[in-house]
Amino acid sequence: MRGGHTLAVAAALALGVGCDSKPKEPPPDVLKGQRQQMERAKGVEQGLDDAAKKRMEEADRQSK
Questions:
Q1: Which pLDDT value is given to residue 16?
Q2: Cα-flanking dihedrals φ and ψ of residue 30, to 5°?
Q3: CA distance 50 to 33
């Protein structure tokens, strides 16, 4: 009968380990910094593209 008692205790411990009263925090966003840098880079790229377009338009106006 001793084996049955040990099994019952082991089962109770296994069930107790799975029950945690604290809510789990979401996992950290490890790519957040990279996404922010990509957004900044896209903004810089857009600014450079706009400036190049203005220069081209100005050069076209001056050549006419």
A1: 60
A2: -75, -15
A3: 26
Phi, psi of 22 (to 5 degrees): -80, 140
Least confident range from 9-13, 42-46, 48-52: namely: 9-13
Report how many helices (DSSP H) and strands (DSSP E) the chain contains, helices first: 2, 0
pLDDT digits (tens, 9 = 90+) for 8-35: 777 766 666 555 667 788 888 989 999 9
Token reading at 6: 């040990």
Identify residue 13 by its one-letter amino acid code. L
Question: Residue type for 10, please?
Answer: A
Strands (E), the chain: none
How many CB atoms are located within 10 Å of the residue 27 CB?
Answer: 6
